[in-house]
Amino acid sequence: MPATPQVRQTTSKRRRKADSAEAASTDRERFREAVGLIDREYAGTLLVAQTVPSAEAGRRISQVPKSERAGVIEEHLRAWREGSVEAITEYALLYFNIARSFHHQICDDLRERIRSECNRKLAAARKGQGVAQPQAMAPNEVPPKSLMPLSGRESSEWTKLKLLEGVNRRLRPDQFGGVTSFLRSACGEDLIEAVESTAPWEAPSWILIRFGQNRKHSAHLRKSAAEQTNRLLSRIQTHFLLRIEEAIRVQTNLLRATELAQGSQIHSASKTTKGKQPPSEQHLTQALRKLSDVSRYQWLSASEAAAALNISLSHVYQHPGLERAARGRKVLFTTKSVLALKNAIPILQE
Fold it and tell me: Do 155 and 27 fall into the same domain?
């Protein structure tokens, strides 16, 4: 007996639903594979940035007088830090490209991170730690918009989280992380034995003296070597993270410029289809004339900046990379910041 039209329609809907579910599952698997590959490469690059200067410091320390050893440590700590910054610069665009290719998956990841953070705060509040009581979130509950990153910035927010996550995984707790292994290796210790040892590490006295952790105080004010070492490790790690966070902030601002530019192109296309006028040619002409002579023209209007960058006025006003100043009732933007942003966007879009 041939199937009725209603049966055929039901079968077709089921088939489409199954195909859609299979496609979503395939996309999730591709997303996991792509992220896993970049995570491993990023971790390996950060490891090389740490171990090469550490080994070089260990080699040089054995060849210099005691008075110069601390200087060698400082020099190679800087080399490790700047090598990590180079890794961040390299992998920021790789993570960002993944985010643009798998937008739905990174939004799900951001929601899961926010949900986990809310539940962590709830658990802390229940333990009486003074954290405000948040509402518990179910596993499939979507976080409110107030907790989500600004619309259109999901890719750069996710990229920032991944970059910092990789660095934090390398550092880990003070006594077991990258700073400790760097110093122990630089001091000539065997890293395998150091990792297997459960006893807290005590830095040599010449390191503690050089970094100000072992000053000539009265005996009752002197800290134990282990406590001084912990303070030293925390101090080095704090300075390390300040430089890393600055580098990530710079990369994130550049990536947000790309997102805003792409969003404005979609917005402009939408406005054109509704019969609205494209950006003024007069504003673009004025902007290009001012950008060609920065010393003479120090300011651009919001309309000129929008025309030069090909973004909407609302994006101009909220863009973190543009420097602004009030001139009476007008808000103007520095020509230098507009030019710097205009030069950065094509590089990121290649």
Answer: yes
